[in-house]
Design brief:
Length: 338
């Protein structure tokens, strides 16, 4: 099947998340079924003369393809240059962040603020699309606030400018991460849209992923936080959609995933950086398993990599059978850049 110009195996993909969807995690999630991956947001201002940190954010490996790099900014000239840098780096597409609600970003007119001026946006998007051969995609919210949910208008502007698809997080900028993602609204935008629409927000089970896909007619379903507590969500959703048996998460399978992640982290980061990332992911993956609270405490106190992974091995070997899915209704990571 196709998502705009890009060939995909199934319609479930990982959402971009700052500090999380770096190259090792994107690579892992591609291997575990995300049909496409996207980097976290990278500032378009000065991307040409980027610091080492920015350059690191833009790195990817072949195994991630199809991979998009996400940029944010407010000035046409900088955004155009950033698109060209992304193309030069060899990414498969460039994604514009139009969903970030963070005050520092929207104050300048970037992120979610871009939906407030469709006329200016039209100019910017046209210039970006014209400046590169790779597809330009956008990720938006439903609107600035409840009284200004103009996603329909933004999709039309994007379509006229030649954008390849629009991903919609079903909340307004004003909502931040509160309330529920409004999938009825996403479905309504999709019904009127000339462009492929990716729906996003609050999907945490394979059943929800498949039902959102079928009920709302979207071209794909994007999953962020859900994948942090269940990294098997993409393959489970794809299996469910295809009518295959959903493979349960066993100790062997999660230990194999951890082993891969350990390797990718150590290829990309120095030992200290790899530890920091490993701690976060291990804490998230442990949600709902017996003894998770104590495990998390241990994870953040163990002093070296070897003992950290040994503790993870011990925990997941024992705990895997009795997951309490009550964690699905707990609030989780209620802030981010989109
Ligand atoms: C920690 C965190 C960081 C995020 N960073 C980004 C980002 O860099 N770019 C972006 O477009 N969205 C970002 N988002 C938003 C997600 O892509 C997604 O739209 C949102 O989390 C809702 O989907 P979910 O309920 O499946 O998590 C971030 C979200 C979180 C929780």
């Amino acid at each position: 099947m196709k998502l705009g110009p890009i060939e995909i195996d199934h319609p479930f993909l990982l959402a971009p998340m700052a500090g999380i969807t770096n190259s090792p995690f994107r690579r892992l999630m591609r291997e575990y079924g995300s049909s496409v991956v996207i980097s976290e947001l990278v500032s378009a201002n000065g991307i040409e003369y980027a610091s080492q940190r920015t350059l690191d954010l833009l790195k990817f490996v072949e195994a991630e393809r199809p991979v998009g790099l996400q940029i944010f900014g407010e000035e046409e000239e900088n955004l155009v240059r950033a698109c060209q840098v992304v193309e030069r780096l060899g990414a498969d597409f460039v994604d514009l962040n139009m969903g970030c609600p963070v005050p520092k970003v929207v104050k300048k007119g970037a992120g979610a603020a871009m939906c407030r001026n469709p006329l200016e946006l039209s100019k910017i998007l046209s210039a970006m699309v014209k400046s590169v051969k790779i597809p330009v995609t956008i990720k938006i919210r439903t609107g600035w606030e409840a009284s200004a949910r103009n996603a329909n208008e933004i999709v039309k502007v994007a379509s006229d400018a030649g954008v390849a698809w629009v991903a919609i997080h079903g909340r307004t900028r004003a909502q931040g991460y509160s309330g529920d993602a409004d999938w009825d609204f996403i479905g309504d935008v999709k019904a009127k849209s000339p462009l492929p629409i990716i729906g996003n927000g609050d999907v945490v089970t394979p059943e929800q992923a498949v039902s959102r896909y079928k009920t709302y007619g979207v071209d794909a379903v994007m999953i962020g936080r859900g994948a942090l507590r269940n990294p098997f969500l993409f393959e489970q959703s794809a299996d469910l959609l295809a009518g295959r048996q959903v493979i349960p998460v066993t100790a062997e399978r999660i230990l194999a995933l951890l082993e891969k992640q350990r390797g990718y982290l150590s290829e990309s980061f120095d030992p200290r950086g790899a530890m920091l990332h490993a701690r976060k992911f291990l804490a998230w993956y442990s949600s709902g398993y017996p003894g998770a609270a104590e495990f998390r405490k241990n994870v953040f106190h163990l002093p070296d990599e070897q003992s950290l992974w040994e503790e993870a091995h011990r925990f997941f070997s024992i705990s895997i059978k009795k997951r309490d899915f009550g964690y699905l209704s707990e609030p989780f990571l209620m802030g981010g850049h989109g």
